[in-house]
Design a protein that fits this description.
By secondary structure, this protein is of the alpha/beta class. It folds into 3 domains: 288 residues, Aldolase class I (TIM Barrel); 93 residues, no CATH class; 128 residues, Double Stranded RNA Binding Domain (2-Layer Sandwich), CATH 3.30.160. Helices cover 40% and strands 19% of the residues. It is built from 18 helices and 16 strands. The strands form 4 sheets. An 8-stranded parallel beta barrel has the order 1-2-3-4-5-6-7-8, surrounded by 9 helices. A 3-stranded antiparallel sheet has the order 11-12-13. The protein has a 3-stranded antiparallel sheet with strand order 14-15-16. Helix 6 packs across helix 7 and helix 13 crosses helix 14.
Length: 543
């Protein structure tokens, strides 16, 4: 029995099992199937689907994949060793695992003697029997087995002899992969390396041990790390550098407590930085898209500052940074964003310089010259508005409108002559539409007066404006107000505080954000809503 050494790293995704244990994350069977197919397309070879028999959702998931298999990935069923003082052959849990119909099964067992005696309330000898009996039974059923050594590193640090004994038992029983788990997530990288090397040493010695019945197989090592010390990715990399050939993790690092090792960081680090082969080159460019797809399906806001895949991962705000990146991206970027399917962004804020304005203009299809007086006007207007509380880095649509206004190319679709909003709070919950907005708009020299109700003043204002404009611009039907955020900028002023409103709008293919600022929350909201509609109309004409 030998430990396989290869430049290829096998990826094992546990988003659908370990990832769903994150607080606040819940998925349906259909959600799990959509994610599994996305991971399959990304090229992940092992996808852990859940624990068949633990809940009806997981049973249905495996049944549906039997009818419509994935293209290349192995779907893996997950379970524990049998219970103490029973038989694997009579364990109902294992019958559900077999019925799931997967070729591979991951079995987790106890490595830490503390868990054996206090958690399972059994003996160390019986724990070894549980590992042996479970794996041997699954092998008799034609299954290939991955053994997850739960709490491995804590167990090793407390009692290395027994922890190693559990691994040797799993190997001798037929497990093809031994995965070292940092279940509590408290191990640090400098501890990972020597422990992994010690395991490799023991496996190499065991190759000559005639007592092992599995010596015709090549035993490979894997790593499964949690992020409680914020070192899950670093720990996994340390393990790979020490010799493991499988990395387990989740998309976006989802998982219980502080999460699991983030595959969206691990894959680029291993493949682009360290030269290991994980997935195909054209697949690694799908990582950003996959990250955002999964966050959308599980209904969690994406981490804008996530390494590699975050919206801000290649964003440049300071004027000096932008100027340098424009000359050579290597000055402030450790890889090309396109390698992971991301893109460079130039952020506009009060810290911007002329370089920011010129670079941002190009992203809008506007070719500005440094000597153009409008460039300085735009920059000065930007800084003045940001000092008032505007935030254009979060509202790029408003900034494009500002630029076009300074250049004299901003199209006037309509003019607001005035509006009123009435909130009927006296009737409370009994009132189905507690807000009424009346608005007067001029379009092509024609005045239109309209009113509309809504469940709040901003909704009523938005509805009235759309009602007034839709006959002139039918495409407004396609626009949706998808997000609305309000922030108080100077809370010490109490009810007289300045308010900033951010409104995100979208159509079938695009999203855009606009901003408004005022001491009057309705005025701030009105500014953002109006610019959102105006920008949407501009996009329609441009397309």
């Amino acid at each position: 029995m030998t430990v396989k050494s290869s430049p290829h790293i096998w990826l094992y995704d546990t988003t659908l099992r370990d990832g769903t244990q994150r607080e606040g994350l819940s998925v349906s069977t259909e959600d799990k199937l959509r994610i599994a197919r996305k991971l399959d397309k990304l090229g992940i070879p092992f996808i852990e689907g859940g624990w068949p028999g633990a809940n009806p959702k997981d049973v249905q998931f495996f049944l549906q994949l039997q009818e419509e298999p994935l293209e290349q990935a192995e779907v893996v069923a997950f379970c524990s060793t049998r219970r103490p003082n029973t038989s694997a052959a009579t364990e109902p849990m294992l019958q559900a695992i077999i019925a799931a119909g997967t070729r591979w099964v991951t079995v987790f067992g106890k490595s830490w003697d503390l868990h054996v005696t206090e958690g399972l309330n059994t003996t160390l000898t019986e724990n070894l029997a549980m590992i042996r009996d479970t794996i041997e039974y699954l092998k008799l059923q034609g299954k290939r087995v991955i053994y997850d050594a739960e709490h491995w590193f804590d167990g090793y640090k407390h009692s290395p002899e027994y922890a190693l004994q559990t691994l040797m038992t799993a190997a001798a029983s037929g497990a093809e992969w031994l995965v070292l788990c940092d279940t509590n997530g408290g191990t640090l990288p400098h501890e990972i390396t020597p422990i992994v090397k010690d395991v490799i040493g023991h496996l190499s010695v065991s190759d000559r041990d005639t007592k092992l019945t599995n010596n015709q197989l090549t035993i490979q090592l894997g790593i499964h790390t949690h992020n409680d010390a914020d070192t899950a990715v670093a720990n996994a990399i340390a393990a790979v550098m020490a010799g493991v050939t499988m990395v387990q993790g989740t998309i976006n690092g989802y998982g219980e407590r502080c999460g699991n090792a983030n595959l969206c960081s691990l894959i680029p680090n291993l493949q682009l930085k360290l030269g290991f082969s994980c997935i195909e080159v054209d697949q690694i460019t799908q990582i950003t898209e996959t990250s955002r797809f999964v966050s959308e399906v599980v209904n969690l806001a994406p981490d804008e500052h996530a390494a590699f895949v975050g919206r801000s991962a290649f964003a440049h705000k300071g004027g000096i940074h932008v100027s340098a990146v424009e000359r050579n991206p290597l000055t402030y970027e450790h890889i090309q964003p396109e390698q992971v399917g991301n893109s460079r962004r130039i952020v506009i804020s009060e810290q911007a310089g002329v370089s920011n304005v010129l670079a941002k203009a190009r992203t809008f299809g506007i070719e500005l010259d440094k000597q153009n007086p409008a460039t300085r006007v735009i920059l000065e207007r930007l800084k003045a508005l940001e000092s008032e509380g505007y935030q254009f880095e979060a509202a790029e649509a408003s900034f494009e409108l500002l630029m076009r206004d300074a250049l004299g190319t901003r199209q006037k679709f309509f003019e607001i002559k005035g509006f009123q909003v009435h909130s009927n709070l006296a009737q409370g919950k009994e009132c189905s539409s507690p807000a009424l907005a009346t608005i007067k708009v001029a379009v092509n020299g024609q005045d239109i007066l309209e009113a509309a109700e809504g469940n709040g003043p901003v909704a009523a204002l938005d509805a009235a404006l759309r009602k007034a404009l839709v006959n002139f611009y039918p495409q407004i039907h396609e626009f949706e107000l998808s997000d609305y955020k309000v922030r108080i900028l100077n809370g010490h002023a109490g009810t007289a505080s300045i308010t900033r409103a951010l409104v995100e709008s979208r159509n079938a293919v695009q999203r855009w954000t606009t901003v408004g600022v005022s001491v009057n929350i309705l005025e701030a909201s009105y500014q953002a809503v109006v610019e959102g509609l105006e920008y949407g109309l501009m996009l329609q004409i441009r397309d």
